[in-house]
Amino acid sequence: MGGKLVQIPHPPEEGWIEGSAPTMMRKDHHRALSAWARQLGPVYAIRIVFWHLVVVVDAELANLILGTQESLNKALEPDLSDTLLSHRPGHRTMFSSDTNSPYWRLIRKGTASAFVTANIKRGFPGVLRVLDKVIDNMAGMPPGAELDMNNVTLRISLDVTGIIGFAKDFRTCSSFKDAGTDELFTIIQKTFRELYCRTTNPARPYMLWVPEVREARRLFRAFRARMAGLVQEVKARGPPDAEDVSIAAHLLRLRDPATGQPLPNDLLAGEFGLFFSAGIESAGNAISWTLYLIQQNPEVEAKLVAELDKAGLLLTPQRLTPRAMEYADLAHLTYLSWVCKEAMRVRPVAATGSTRYTRRAMRVGGHFLPKGTMVDVPFYAVHHHPGNWEDPDTFNPERWAVPHAELASTKDSAADGAAELEQSGALDAQGAAKRFLPFSAGPRQCIGQSLARILHDASIARLVAQFSFDLAPRMGGAAGVDRQEINRLTLQPGAGMWMTFQSRAESAIIRKPDGSSLQDTSKA
Q1: 3-state secondary structure string, 341-363?
Q2: pTM: predicted TM-score of the whole model, two decimal places
Q3: Contacts of 403 (CB under 8 A, 6+ apart)
Q4: Closest by CA position to 344, among listed 299, 288, 302, 305
Q5: Domain check: are 513 and 378 in the same one?
């Protein structure tokens, strides 16, 4: 599927400026979208065969696109997601339903309280149990062993989702190679890979001569069967009591406003599948990228280690039993927060962003968009655009020391859409638009971001407190990681994230990427 770059003119009658003809099928198309924004400006378009995709990278205009509820709606993703998630032909899940449709409002509002701070806090011990199991497994491995940390962090995410969301431990962290617990883990990985292939090739479902396409039909059925079985398992426990704040309990309490009856099992199974799968790859890959960026920046690692040491959470030769981590620690580990935010900025796992289509003609940043125009807000490009961030390609946690660093400065470029931006609800309490979009923005932003952030930060804190990491030789250094990086629904290391690790009880040295060492400042 070839494509030409075109810059949207103003007014449109002036003609289009054509550029080169790269393809959206590239595994690193997120980098291409970012490079084109620097070349052509923060609003441009890609011509792909007979249709055009408008790309918006300017932070304020991105918030307008994502925050406008009535004139824009989701595009591209819905039909593909229903292939995997929906158990009733023609019925859309919350993910694919129209924004503000009765069904979308029912599910969105009915499950929102599952992610409030008090309820996430109650599930925090479950997060720690999963992390403790992972740490025990790693501690039992022989010195110098290589481990795919991307595989490990995906397992962490799956098990935490199961425990907090559905009160079920899938035990994929009980062993890193247990065929008895890995079926669902494997199904999710393969189905997401197939969905990605279908986003770049609409004809793929009909390519039955391809073995992966034939297998996909079986895998989609297998995933839906597992979710239907999970519904039966949860309902067999009886009606959820008032103390049950899991996602599953919230879904079981919902009533169809038209009938007053609970949601039928097939609709519940679709929503179980949505909430179960939506965060696993994104959270797991985000943790993996953060470990990598810390390892690549030894000065950052030294500061993070010092903060964990000061909090009594660091394993050292002198402290073989650090104190147990508590939920309250996350609010006090300031540098940890900076590191995790910066990693999500530099390597946002939803790199391609989110696509909308215009329900009516509208103007965005001086550009006229006819009704039916497809518009993409690529989060990687937003995070790496010089118009939004100073020195955007540098991993610099200290940038988050500035109050409200996640907000964009007001620019005249959005003046013609300022009123609509104000009315859309996309602005922050300070009256500014967000330039930090790892979880999107507006009414369709990630409902589970509070859980994702806690899982992410707690995982980084516990793993870094216990081990120092080095890239395994097979990765080919930072250049090899960049070369193998792939954007497949989520931004992920295409060949895994193979690392060696060493217990901090055995060494007080942090290794630089070039093999030299940097003394850990917490023990100097």
Answers
A1: HHHHHHCCCCCCCEEEEECCCEE
A2: 0.89
A3: none
A4: 288
A5: no
Binding residues: 446
Q: Which residue has the tokens 């997601």?
A: 81
Cβ atoms < 10 Å from Cβ of 303: 19
Annotated binding site for heme: 446
Q: State the Cα–Cα distance between residues 521 and 99, nearest whole angstrom.
A: 50
Do both 239 and 177 map to the same domain?
yes
Backbone angles phi, psi at 168, to 5 degrees: -140, 125
Which residues does residue 487 pair with via DSSP β-bridges, in sequence order? 491
Whether 235 and 329 share a structural domain: yes
For position 19, which CATH number holds? Answer: 3.30.43.20
pLDDT digits 0-9 by tens, 147-167: 999 999 999 999 999 999 999
As a whole number, mean pLDDT of residues 302-309 equals 98
* Same domain assignment for residues 427 and 373: yes
Helix (H, G, I), strand (E, B) or coil at 68: coil
Residue 82 maps to a domain: no
Degrees, nearest 5: CA angle 463-467-470: 105
Range of the domain at 42: 3-73+354-436
> What CA–CA distance (Å, rounded) separates 398 from 386?
17
463 domain-assigned: yes
Task: Give how many domains the chain has, as a whole number.
Answer: 2
Work out whether strand 51-56 and strand 374-377 pair parallel, antiparallel, or are unpaired: parallel
pLDDT by residue (tens digit) across 334-343? 999 999 999 9
Query: Across 101-110, 142-151, 339-348, 514-523, which has the greatest mean pLDDT?
Result: 339-348
> Whole-angstrom Cα distance, residue 478 to residue 64?
36
The domain that contains 317 carries what CATH number?
1.10.630.10
Residue 508 near residue 316, CB atoms below 8 Å:
yes
As a whole number of Å, the CA-based R_g of the chain is 23
**Distance of alpha carbon 371 from the chain centroid:** 30
The answer, yes or no, to whether residue 520 has pLDDT greater than 70, is: no
Domain boundary, last residue among 417, 436, 455: 436
Please spell the DSSP secondary structure of 419-467, one letter per residue.
HHHHHHT-S-TTS--BS--TT--GGGS-TTHHHHHHHHHHHHHHHHHHE
- For residue 395, what are its two tokens? 């991993």
